[in-house]
Amino acid sequence: MLTSGFTNAPISRFLVLFVIAGSIIVSITDSKYLFYIQVVPHLWRYKQAWRLLVWQACFTNSTEVLFAAMSLYHLRIIERLWGSRKFASFLLSTLPYTTLLPPLLLALLLRPLTFNHINYLPAGPVAIIFSLLAQYHAVIPHVYKYRIATSTSTSTSTSPSSTSQQPPAGILFSDKSLTYLLATQLALSQFPGSTLSAAVGWFVGYAWRSEILPGAARWRVPGWMVGGKERGVEGRRYEGLRRRLEGEATAAASGVEGQVVGGEGGRQRRTLGTQILDQFRGAF
After folding, report:
1. What are the φ and ψ backbone dihedral angles of 68, each rounded to 5 degrees?
2. How deeply is 151 buried, as exposed, middle or buried, from its count of CB atoms within 10 A (0-12, 13-18, 19+)?
């Protein structure tokens, strides 16, 4: 998990290179105007429905490219945790939702509610990044926390019973705060359009985790698409073990099974799948 660079994260490396290269190409070719969406005139007047499919292809300014590339670099840990196959499956299964929902919500809901004032959706895969950020928030525990003090402690108690001072008032952070700060800057870069994309991406990410999206959570891309190889009987055995662990974890979370009462003190015994997942949830 602590390996530097893009070791064991080839798809994350491709995404970072794609974001950077895409921005450079559209800048050189002076084609930025083809990617952002204005409901009027692009959709309603000119009927340019193809913009619904290409608006996430690239960013149109260098600031967004910088924060997007840094965010994707931090989120590469998701691919290391899941493996490239599950990571690619997540991106592809949620792509229709992150691509179509933001412009449709803008055109059919947000623009009428604001009396046509909000009309612009900036280009860039903000929704994809925030769908990954939802997974990062859910499965990656913080390693440490630190506090930035905003005032000094004024406690001068000298009683024998109180030998320790109260910690000074301040703002509490963790090692994950930088990732959230980068994503927040990206979400607010072209408010309110970028914020809409971020909110939709976060919702889609959690909907995928809750298996609300039809068939998306269980679907997997073929192994050969991410460089995997078929392993015959051995591969099927490990695949069955993985699915069994996922099933045990789901059942334990819903309280249906995996709650065997022990003989000492009535303590509940956790299943193997639950113990493995707890290592990543921070429940030790």
Report:
1. -70, -45
2. exposed
